[in-house]
Amino acid sequence: MIEALIALFISLIVSFCAVIYLRTCVLFINYRPNHQDQFAILQLRQIAAVSKDREVKERTLYMIYEHEEIRIEFDRNRLVKRDGYEILMENIEYAEFFEEDEKIYLRYQKDKKTFSVQIT
Is the pTM higher than 0.85? Predict the structure, then answer.
């Protein structure tokens, strides 16, 4: 009888460890880091911090950056900086800038999820 209880206890521990291992594997499989998005937001904040005359018109951000007017806008599933065509963020479904309480925000949609971040 004691041997059967010990065997049952060991089986319980092994199955518990297997469940924990499988749950961890599922979490790693479904994990999708958004490092590119975070880096793009940091770039936008840095550009906005050193720019003058920041203004949002028609969902596009206009700024004077290094004595030149630039605009940051959504174009072909990308967030781009126009004084050329520098891609800040890719594979997004929609992006727009908006002002609220004298602060500038970026709202974008990626993988059917909507994100809003403060830029200034």
Answer: no
